[in-house]
Amino acid sequence: MLANLPAQPADALLALIKLFAADDRADKIDLGVGVYRTTDGATPVFKSVKGAEKVLVDTQDSKSYLGPEGDMGFVEALKPIIFGNDFAAIGNVDGMQTPGGTGGVRLAVALAKSAGVKRVIMGTPSWPNHAQIMKDLDLGVVTFNHARDGAVDMDALKSAVADAAPTDAILLHGCCHNPTGIDYSVAQWREIAALLKDKGLLPILDLAYQGLGDGMEEDAQGVRIVMSTVPEALLAYSCDKNFGLYRDRVGAFYVMADKDKLPAIMSNGASLARANWSMPPDHGAAAVRIILEDAALTQQWLAELDDMRARMRQMRDKLAAAGTAGSVDMTPYATQHGLFAMLPLSKEQIEALRDDHAVYMAGSGRINIAGLTAGNIDKFIAAVADVSA
Ligand code: LMR
User: Which of 6, 90, 109, 328 has its CA 20 to 30 Å from the CA of residue 25?
Assistant: First the structure.
């Protein structure tokens, strides 16, 4: 029976981690998987997380099961961070903890399917795992161009919404678009929210990088605008990047709907979670809860995020200051957001970057801005110039 299984290709992005590790060139540059790196190329545990983990070790008196919804203190503590203190419809929002943002997306899409959604509309390029999740759940995917000429392609989005069927949902990146770094402006979010409301189209919002774009409040504007406009929405949230908890898999899933319907909706979330992973892992989410319940740890965490954002902004400015590298215009990178940017390079050019210059990036042309440092950015720009000349 098992011998019938055909081999599957390794996830291209995750395979890059191993390829990079196996390269023994001292000046190699890792711009692959989306993790934050310091100017030394490290991805350290946040000091605020270390502080919270100490508290956790000292105070946690049981590791008994919590249930499919995980740590509800964590889920509640995140609400003001995501939705703000003045979010009028907060009484219509309920949530649960998930294993990472991926678990949140998985649960949102599976719940949408249970509710009758047959296809998900989404801009491309997108995070490759979005399409994989839809495929695994046997849902149709309708794509539109996320960006054109370095800017959001609003016409493509509008016509996709106009053509939507009643059983469609739409997936939108809340901020720091992965992979392009090209985000909607506040005015565009307002327009999108109004279109979704008019069409009655269910939004699935993926907020995986809050705080890594323009700021915690700024990066939540889009989801807050949409959720203040439409009657129902699903939101997947990740703490993997903004708390640096990647391998601890810390995420959440929120539903906004009629208050009296929420218990039934969340019971579907709980039963889907039970069938998928039973219960989410506790440790990272408990550390986030401890941070958010403690004013000093919260300040420390926010300051750490400020530093990360400032460093990435410096790298973006430095790229833009280079003007062009070969055929690549670097100037748009200064005004884009988050960890990622796309280089318009061919497959051969991306391979040449890896083979000839030890520069590792996703096959799509995506780079992780945080992989750039004061020490390697000039080499990177020269390498891009070399392969694209
Ligand atoms: C990325 O896009 O690099 C991250 O979200 C990591 C992942 O799981 O793909």
Answer: 328
